[in-house]
Automatic annotation (TrEMBL):
UniProt keyword list: Fatty acid biosynthesis, Fatty acid metabolism, Lipid biosynthesis, Lipid metabolism, Membrane, Methyltransferase, Oxidoreductase, S-adenosyl-L-methionine, Transferase, Transmembrane, Transmembrane helix
Positions of the Methyltransferase domain: 335-395
GO MF terms, alphabetically ordered: oxidoreductase activity, acting on paired donors, with oxidation of a pair of donors resulting in the reduction of molecular oxygen to two molecules of water; RNA binding; tRNA (uracil(54)-C5)-methyltransferase activity, S-adenosyl methionine-dependent
Highest taxon in the source lineage: Eukaryota
Chain sites annotated for binding S-adenosyl-L-methionine: Q303, E362, N414
Transmembrane feature ranges: 542-562, 621-644, 650-669
Gene Ontology terms: cellular component: membrane
Known EC number: 2.1.1.35
Active site feature: C442
Annotated protein name in UniProt: tRNA (uracil(54)-C(5))-methyltransferase
Length: 734
């Protein structure tokens, strides 16, 4: 007992020391800059105070409506904004705590009150709160006065057809340099003889403009242009007019450091697909973060709030590799830093003085080139950046680290909103040298929550998660976007292996915040978008046979439909279909009614499956399929004979039935019930079940079962559609 008490006192002491070091590191960023930022007065709020009379959209000006869309929290004081964001982050993290404690395992729809099991620090404020954006994209559309050549931001939606483009000069997060370029671009396109491109298919040429700037005041503008049917010579004339306007004409007041022009017929176009053409100035601007210099190209990713980015990266650095002078843990975490989704290498380069080696992995090759250039620019020699998908590159890197025996590894992951691929999580979990992992998420209530649970769940051989689980030990929200509800969350995970040695992970988990609040957490369903799968369908067999009329198709599939319709009432995939565990997550902001969908891993290719050596399994013919497919094709041939005598209405009805049956297979049996890529309401599920029954391709149970097995064991003896065994086997007899 005495020994336990002594350990507890040491835990509390080291914990307070660690948190004090972190607060001391981050507090430096919220001094003079914050005070200066607050001196800018917000718009008048006297007429915006709450009253008994309910405010409607018609009572608001267009500027207020736009502010409510772009900066929804602009009416609140900054302290109120931080309090609101903290409560939101705690509500999200209480779900993770509930999952770890087992309270959210049940399928009950009732809210669960869960106490946070790890500390959540107050939101670290942004040193600059007004005009903080260093990148803005202004759209072109019809303005309040009906002029289609208005540059600004949208109010309304295209679906409702009520889009109005409003100038953004009054927005609190918009710097004056950006709005000045937008005003000049608006004046230019109003002088131009070309029309704006509001919709690609309606013609027009001038599209949006993107403005970037750095702390030194250098400004870069990128103008997007749809060439339509213009010749290169005609496009060159308008490029020259644009260049002349911004260098010698009225637009010269913008003092552009760089002017780019991109011809694009797509909504988003990379430099490789359509190069950015430099019309004026330098090809790059440079930004400084925590004493390191970074090159910013036209399409490079960089945090939109430079001052808050220093707070964010300083926090990440301190959590990944604690300062040896403050944390005293340099020898424990100083081997290698693994930077997954590294972008242009900012985190790795900033952390490089504290570690022996940095390994960064990034999908976009241009970003990898920028990262390598940034490392050379700062004379950082211990950084290595690898291009490619993290789920492909990471296992090899992990194997290399294991064989090298380079000591403990700290990892930082900063993925996009879609989160990490499950193979990345598997590689991180199964690497015993990773003692500390920092996850940076811009949307923790999205797919990142799935990653959190996979990192913290018990070892699961079915999911190949054989390594020891991580434990969340500290959460630090960072306000990167004042006046908006968005917030970056930095979450520290530590390996439970080190917990048995009373390491810093237990120290952080043992010391709670003084007042852990109780929250009623709404259940949420997080639906990661399933990876793209190649379609394996045979619906073209159907088209002309429907000329016999719908009665033939329905009479052959009445029994099939009643079995398929049963899927509309419950999830049709039980444990009898697969031994792979499914994950069910809940979201209180479902876009499709109360329908609940599931994500699974039983349709993911199993790269560990090995076919048995020796003779192939005997071929077994499924005579039911052979006979029915034969009759179906004979009916199609007979339909060709009847086609010349068919009326126009019969042919039209045939086309409608073909489309319905195709939707039943593609959107229903394939995307909804096989891969569960989206949620569907009950009426839609009934419609898709009916359409699938018309397609004459087995019932939903068999279709989904075979298709999942086909994906998991593709082109092996376990694949019911193994193409290597011939066309007859894969399409008819299998």
């Amino acid at each position: 007992m005495a020994l336990a008490a002594a350990q507890t006192r040491s835990v509390l002491f080291i914990k307070r020391k660690y948190l004090h070091a972190l607060r001391k590191t981050c507090l430096w960023f919220s001094t003079n800059d914050t005070i200066l930022a607050d001196q800018r007065k917000p718009p008048p709020k006297t007429h915006l105070r709450k009253s008994k009379k309910k405010t409607t959209l018609t009572d608001l000006s267009w500027e207020e409506r736009l502010a409510d869309v772009v900066t929804p929290l602009w009416r609140l004081s900054y302290d109120e904004q931080l309090e609101l964001k903290l409560k939101h982050q705690e509500r999200i993290l209480s779900q993770l705590s509930g999952y770890l404690s087992g309270e959210l395992q049940s399928q009950s729809s009732l809210p669960v009150r869960t106490k946070l099991s790890f500390p959540v620090l107050p939101v670290l404020p942004s040193p600059v709160r007004d005009g903080y954006r260093n990148k803005s994209t202004f759209s072109v559309n019809r303005g309040v006065d009906g002029n289609p050549k208005t540059v600004g931001f949208y109010v309304g939606t295209g679906k409702k057809g009520n889009i109005v483009c409003v100038n953004g000069d009054h927005l609190l997060n918009m710097p004056e340099k950006h709005t000045r370029v937008a005003r000049c671009y608006q004046d230019f396109i109003r002088l131009s003889s070309l029309e704006p491109c509001l919709l690609f298919h309606t013609g027009g040429h001038w599209r949006e403009v993107t403005v970037r700037n750095n702390a030194e005041g250098h400004t870069m503008a990128i103008v997007y242009f749809h060439p339509q049917t213009l010749t290169p010579e005609e496009v060159a004339v308008h490029k020259a007019e644009l260049l002349n306007y911004f260098t010698r004409g009225p637009g010269s007041v913008c003092q552009l450091h760089s002017l780019f022009f991109q011809e694009s017929a797509m909504t988003r176009c990379t430099h490789e697909q359509s190069p950015y053409q430099l019309l004026h100035g330098q090809p790059h601007i440079y930004e400084e973060l925590l004493g390191f210099k970074f090159r910013i190209s036209a399409d490079a990713f960089f945090q939109v709030n430079q001052a808050a980015a220093e707070v964010l990266y300083s926090t990440v650095r301190q959590l990944c590799i604690p300062n040896p002078e403050e944390g005293g843990e340099r020898t424990q975490f100083g081997g290698t830093l693994l930077d997954v989704c590294c972008g242009t290498g900012a985190i790795g380069i900033i952390t490089s003085p504290r570690v022996d080696r940095i390994i960064g992995i990034e999908l976009i090759e241009q970003a990898v080139e920028d990262a390598r250039h940034n490392a050379a620019l700062n004379n950082v020699l211990n950084c290595e950046f690898i291009p490619g998908k993290a789920e492909v590159a990471l296992p090899g890197v992990m194997l290399q680290l294991s064989s090298a025996g380079g000591g403990p590894v700290a990892a930082v992951v900063n993925p996009a909103r879609a989160g990490l691929h499950y193979r990345v999580v598997r590689a991180l979990r199964n690497q015993p040298n990773i003692r500390r992992l920092v996850y940076v998420s811009c949307k923790p209530d999205g797919d990142a929550m799935r990653n959190f649970r996979e990192l913290c769940c018990a070892p699961d051989p079915k999911k190949k998660l054989t390594g020891e689980a991580f434990s969340p030990t500290l959460a630090v929200p960072v306000d990167m976007f004042p006046h908006t509800p968005h917030c970056e969350l930095v979450l520290l995970f530590e390996s439970r292996i080190s917990c048995s040695f009373v390491s810093s992970s237990v120290l952080k988990n043992a010391c709670r915040l003084q007042d852990c609040c109780m929250f009623t957490a709404s259940r949420r369903t997080f639906l990661p978008v399933s990876p793209s799968h190649r379609t394996h369908l045979t619906e073209p067999h159907l088209s002309l046979s429907l000329c016999l009329s719908l009665s033939l198709s329905l009479s052959l599939s009445v029994s099939v439909f009643f079995r398929a319709a049963h899927c509309c009432y419950r999830t049709p995939f039980s444990a009898k279909m697969t031994e792979t565990e499914t994950r069910t997550l809940h979201d209180d902001k479902q876009q499709n009614g109360a329908a609940v969908a599931e994500t699974s891993v039983e349709d993911v290719f199993d790269d560990t499956y090995k076919m048995k050596e020796g003779p192939k399994p005997p071929r077994m013919l499924v005579w039911r399929n052979i006979i029915l497919m034969t009759l179906l094709h004979l009916g199609a041939l007979y339909g060709l004979v009847l086609l010349p005598s068919a009326s126009v209405s019969t042919v039209a009805w045939t086309a409608v039935c073909y489309l319905i049956s195709a939707l039943g297979v593609t959107a229903g049996a394939h995307r909804l019930w096989s891969h569960r890529s989206y949620k569907a309401s009950f009426p839609l599920r009934v419609f898709l079940a009916l359409g699938n029954s018309m397609a004459f391709q087995n019932d939903i149970y068999e279709w989904a079962r075979d298709h999942r097995v086909h994906h998991k064991y593709s082109e092996t003896d376990a694949d019911p559609h193994n193409a290597t065994r011939g066309f007859f086997f894969s399409h008819v007899a299998g």
